[in-house]
Amino acid sequence: MFTAIFSSVEAGFIYAIMALGVYLSFRILDFPDLTVDGSFVTGAAVASVLIINGTNPFIASAVALLAGFIAGCVTGLLHTKGKINPLLSGILMMIALYSINLRIMGRSNVPLLQQETVVTVLTEAWQKAGIDEAINRVISLQSFVPRTWAVLFCMALTVFIIKLLLDQLLKTEIGLALRATGDNKQMISSFSANTDLLTIFGLGLSNALVAFSGALVAQYGGFSDVGMGIGMIIIGLASVIIGEALFGARSVARATLAVIGGAIVYRIILALALRVQFLETSDVKLITALIVMLSLIVPNVLSSQKEKRRKKRRAQERERGEHVAGAQTDYKSV
Amino acid sequence: MLELRQITKVFNEGTVDEKVALKSINLTLAPGDFVTIIGSNGAGKSTMMNVISGKLLPDTGSVWINGQEVTQLSEHKRARYIGRVFQDPLAGTAPNMTIEENLALAYNRTKRRTLKFGVTKQRREFFREALKTLQLGLENRLTAKVGLLSGGERQALSLLMATFTKPDLLLLDEHTAALDPARAELITQLTKDMVEKLQLTTLMVTHNMEQALRLGNRLIMMDQGQIIFEASGKEKQSLTVEKLLQEFQRIRSSHFASDRAMLV
Ligand SMILES: Nc1ncnc2c1ncn2[C@@H]1O[C@H](COP(=O)(O)OP(=O)(O)OP(=O)(O)O)[C@@H](O)[C@H]1O
Ligand SMILES: [Mg+2]
Predict the structure, then answer these.
(1) How does it sit in the membrane (chain A) (predicted)?
(2) Which of A152, A239, B114, B152 is surrounded by the fewest CB atoms within 10 Å?
(3) Which residue of chain A is at minimal alpha-carbon distance from B109?
(4) Would the CB of B224 count as within 6 Å of ligand 1?
(5) Is B55 helix (H, G, I), strand (E, B) or coil?
């Protein structure tokens, strides 16, 4: 149980990078970008292939990030210069990337066992420094001792650095223009911003994060697979929606924090659901879809119920008020 | 300052819906001119504004700003010279961003955007001072989302955002039309003050004849894609709403007469 939750949180942090990318396209740019399903795998594929060919895993991950950026820019070009509708541009790119990813990997699955990855490098360095023992001594959980704290800490750190950078970027002059592009395109182009360029840049950035996340997931899981991106956009959306519902989205900094939280909560819900007897690992996508449906429907139902209760109370109060008024008139007439 | 030469614009050319929106329009504005534009629905006023701002490209003719030809320049590049306020109060601001962020967006109209922070301490002070001129108390709500403001407040903010960077040309397309009379009057007054203070060259479309007569030093009347009447200086000052209406009827009927003459 604890082990399952622990690894959910680990994975949650890694997937949170992807969710931040989805937040950027869906919420900031108001662009439902389906490239994600493809670019996630592109990141994984590029990193894996570079790693098995002996590239330093950190450099390999950085190259993956760049590959995602390019993929996102192409989607942006399709939409702005090719005048293709946003959904279709993303789907076209997603389909195209499927073949490109196979080309990059040369086959449908690339295992990374026995390879030096970001995860192994960090874990080793961490163990050499003896930090794990120190932590375990301090916390001393009897029932549960995790394999290593390295992944959790390093990934959490990476996510928070990315979050802070993103928050800062969205406060710069370019960042404000990016947000305005998603908020009111007509207005921001009347203030001399090139919305085409901003859209392309924003989608590039979004998919760069997605691909980076894909590269880390591949190294964490020990393989990359051409099908690992299926439904990724839904997982990203789930994280964004759950996060916003649970933690609020008043400001950008709050929203990005919420998205990270949402990514972790999603992983935990998924892990718990998979412990239910009759559900199997192959049901993951179905569970994901259900989680998203619920996270979309429940907040609506809750708020409409609240509204109903409020109206009912109002009506009752008014009735009671009339009663009192009626009683008073009775009294007077007596 | 602004020159339109022989501008023609036809929508849906070659179809049954063909519509000549502008017919060889010529217009020259001197620096500091404040021109009010009146004309019936569909006269081509908005189309002319859009051709100037670059939202629409003319079929023939050329647009010149500050002696430079800008006919082919894209809308966002041309925005360096032009401040605009739209009819719809929702159109001129970003609702999910704060007042100060909106002002920062507008502040960058004439500059290259960089990775420096959009809202700095110094700029915030500048924004606060600018907002005070509106006298709506917005200077105390810098971090409020613009979507929370009323239509009138938003339009006042839009006006400030369009003007405080001193554009070479200010375009106002019925920017008071969506407001209640009191708010409309407020925005009209603000417009007058700002244009006078900053000596802005301005084109303002309005359906309110009284407003068109009260503001500005020139007035033009458009009908069916053409400028059919123009008055400036003393002549404009001596105009009244009745005279304008008479003028309009006279020109219209003479048009009809010539049309009929051609048909016969
Ligand atoms: N995008 C377009 N496509 C087709 N026809 C258009 C388009 N824009 C404007 N028109 C037509 O061109 C003519 C001039 O329109 P325009 O919007 O310039 O009028 P206007 O003078 O601004 O009118 P109003 O006072 O109603 O705002 C109208 O007949 C209109 O139907
Ligand atoms: Mg109009």
Answers:
(1) Multi-pass membrane protein
(2) B114
(3) A191
(4) no
(5) coil
Q: pLDDT tens across A21-63, in order?
A: 999 999 999 999 999 999 999 999 999 999 999 999 999 999 9
ipTM of the complex: 0.90
Name the 3-class secondary structure at A250: coil
Could you give the percent of chain B with pLDDT greater than 70? 96
Q: Which pLDDT score is estimated for B46? A: 94
Of B11, B176, B209, which is best to mutate to test ligand 1, by the most ligand atoms within 8 angstroms of its C-beta? Answer: B11
Contact A171 B119 (CB under 8 A): yes
d(CA B32, CA B37): 16
The 10s digit of each residue's pLDDT in B80-106 is: 999 999 999 999 999 999 999 999 999
Residue A334 reports pLDDT greater than 50: no
Confidence (pLDDT) at A324: 60
Instruction: Report the gap between the CA of B140 and the closest CA in chain A (Å).
Output: 19
Buried b (16+ CB within 10 A) or exposed e, B60-78: ebebebeeeebbebebbeb
Q: What is the four-CA torsion angle of A48, A49, A54, A57, rounded to 10 degrees?
A: -30
- Sign for the CA dihedral angle at A73, A74, A79, A81 comes to positive
pLDDT at A333: 44
A6 CB-contact burial (10 Å; exposed 0-12 / middle 13-18 / buried 19+)? middle
Question: In which residue are the tokens 């950026």 written?
Answer: A69
Radius of gyration for chain B, computed over Cα atoms and rounded to the nearest angstrom:
20
Angle ∠(A22,A25,A30) on CA atoms, nearest 5: 130
Give the domain ranges of chain B.
2-93+169-263
Amino acid occupying residue A209: L
For B15-33, the pLDDT digits (tens) are 888 999 999 999 999 999 9
* B254 has pLDDT over 60: yes
Q: Which three-class secondary structure state does DSSP give residue A255?
A: helix
Q: What residues of B are in contact with residue A169 (Cβ under 8 Å)?
A: 115
**Burial level of A274, CB count in 10 A (0-12/13-18/19+)?**
middle
Inter-chain CB proximity A187 and B92 less than 8 Å: yes
**Given a cut of 90, is residue B241 above it in pLDDT?**
no
- Distance (angstroms) between ligand 1 centre and the Cα of A105 equals 55
HSE-up of residue A140 (Cα within 13 Å, Cβ side): 2
- Structure token pair of residue B68: 């430079």
Which residue CA neighbors atom 1 of ligand 1 most closely?
B11
Query: Is the minimum CB–CB distance between B35 and chain A shorter than 8 Å?
Result: no
User: Could you tell me if residue B67 is left (phi over 0), alpha (psi between -120 and 50 degrees) or otherwise beta?
Assistant: left
Closest CA to A202 of A222, A226, A225, A185: A185
Chain B residues whose CB is inside 8 A of the A175 CB are: 118
Helix H or strand E segment including A3? helix A2-23
Over residues A108-136, the pLDDT tens digits come to: 999 998 899 999 999 898 888 877 777 77
In this structure, which topology does domain B2-93+169-263 adopt according to CATH? Answer: Rossmann fold (3.40.50)
Q: Is the CB of residue B141 less than 8 Å from the CB of residue B102?
A: no
Q: Which two tokens stand for residue A59?
A: 């450099």
